[in-house]
Amino acid sequence: MEVIYNATGSSVTGVFSSGWSITISLSEGVLSFLAGAPGTAINRTRGLLGVFNNDITDDFTTPDGTILPINSTERQIHYNFGQLWMVQEGASLFHYKGELTTSSFQEPSFQPVFFDEISWPNETIKAEYYTICNNVTQCVYDYWLTLNKKLAEATATKQAENAVKAGEAKNAVPRIRLIPATVNVTGGDLVTVSVSVTDDDVTDVVSLSYTGNTTGTSFNNSTGLFTWTPALTAQVFMIRFIADDGNGGVSEASVRISYCSGCSSNGTCNFDRQTLPDVNFPNFAVATCECALGYTGDDCSIDLDGCLANPCPQDVNCTDVPAPLHSSSGVAFTCSDCPSGFTLDNNTRKCVDIDECATGSNVTNNCEQLCENTEGSYTCTCYDGYRSNGSRCYDVDECTERSDNCDQICVNTNGSFYCECAAGYTLNVTSNLCISVQRISERDKNSILEVIGLCLDRVDHSS
């Protein structure tokens, strides 16, 4: 329910979602009650306020359906109609405190003063009352009972206001038609809306006006043509038209706006997906931008950072591809090369060690003899009897370096050496000692033969 306070008129109005309204006002110490019914209430009311059907002859319908004649006296109306609608115990919708009940607020025995039974002292006084009240019966009644002129005049004023409101209730409200009623708006593009109004009261002269918070608009009241070029910057826009027939009939209609900034020319507007930026403006929505590849942001004005998700391997630099190139090539980023000795594994997106010592056609080492792989590199080694000089291997001269254990003569070979003896001596292959031939035993002869065999079988690693 919406509650409207009128401090000037000392009144409060409650408006229900169904269209019903209740206005209670205070004047000169007296409360006034006014009920307002929507058009949907026709033929659906019963009770003290009568039957809402534009037929006054059945307004005094009792709870059992009996209709009191419209020309009944006030006494008859009070007792044979009004009293019958008194709320019964158990039927009240109110909640009462303590021992209070419905009957606590009723006085069935009360008898009011009936206006048609007033006995005027003379016609002069009666005419004076009617003159003061401008012939308003309710004013004359209050003045007779209270002798309070201000109260009576307040009653006359309230009756005049009610008469105006009754006229407004009977007055047909003008209807506004918008073509289109919903517009998909792109910043910078021209929008055109045709506005027309009709009124069932053909004698009414209806004025049509535009109100809103938009700039760059033009409205021709005579043709009903409204044009608007929205700004490129997003804001809440409102386009509303008001029709007034001068007789209290006022209606309004708003164009439902679905706005798109244009996505900075880096995307397309999706008017099927919208957001409401301000709940106070239900007729304004913002369309979603679907950004082209390489762009992001609500209006596609931001270059998408292709490196944001850290797509490159560790220790590798990532470079974002500018949005225009990203959009045309489909490539969002580039990674620098892996460190020396590593290569990129496309499946795991990691830098993995290169096995420079692997055999095959892709040999990447320059070792002369032996290769030993390491993390990110490799080292070269040599066979026994050779010494490394970087990637090359050279023979160790055991004879020059005196690393042999020969007794007399050392003979260097590629990767090795062997011992010999001077003339008149023979080599003991077990002890590498040279023994005089004259002292050779039978066992030594066999050793000499073994040495000869060893020399013949010696392997040259340089070949």
Automatic annotation (TrEMBL):
Residues 395-431 form the EGF-like domain. The keyword Cytoplasm does not apply. The lineage of its organism: Eukaryota, Metazoa, Spiralia, Lophotrochozoa, Brachiopoda. This is Mucin-like protein. PANTHER family: MUCIN 4-RELATED (PTHR13802), MUCIN-4 (PTHR13802:SF52). Transmembrane segments: none annotated. GO terms for molecular function: calcium ion binding. CDD domains: EGF_CA (cd00054). Residues 1-93 form the VWFD domain.
